[in-house]
UniProtKB/TrEMBL annotation:
Domain of life the protein comes from: Bacteria
InterPro entries, A to Z: BrxB/BrxA (IPR009474)
Protein name, per record: BrxA/BrxB family bacilliredoxin
NCBIfam families: YphP_YqiW
Length: 136
């Protein structure tokens, strides 16, 4: 588990932009099952989270269409919440960072780590905006 002083600034990058920080399995299940669209980012301390995933996710929200709900959990810190989130991401294997879009509780779009690594934030944002155009 990562130390709180390391994780909290990385969480704040998203929570300061309106993301709900989910820290318990119950919060995760309730958020994902809500009616409408829910974006979930499994955040991470890795370089691709800092350089591409978080900036890309934030930039993706500048378009006309956006998810109804923005949520996040942190791998290596919110252990039980992340485990619960990963139950909803099947059949995709565990991956962090990753970004998922749910509609009415159903997984409709997924960006795994291998989609994030090596790609610029703009490409991640464009991918997510295309999903928002389709599902939001």
């Amino acid at each position: 588990m990562y130390p709180e002083e390391l994780v909290m600034p990385m969480k704040a990058e998203l929570t300061d932009k309106g993301f709900q920080d989910l820290t318990t399995p119950e919060e995760v299940a309730n958020a994902i099952k809500k009616e409408g669209t829910t974006l979930l980012m499994i955040n991470s301390v890795c370089g691709c989270a800092a350089g591409a995933a978080r900036p890309g996710v934030i930039f993706s929200l500048t378009g006309d269409k956006k998810p109804d709900q923005l949520t996040t959990v942190f791998a290596g810190f919110d252990k039980d919440a992340v485990a619960e989130a990963r139950k909803f991401l099947a059949p995709f294997p565990p991956s962090s960072p990753c970004v998922a879009l749910f509609k009415d509780g159903e997984l409709v779009h997924m960006l795994e780590r291998h989609h994030i690594e090596g790609n610029p934030a703009g490409a991640i944002a464009a991918n997510l905006q295309a999903a928002y155009d389709e599902y939001c």
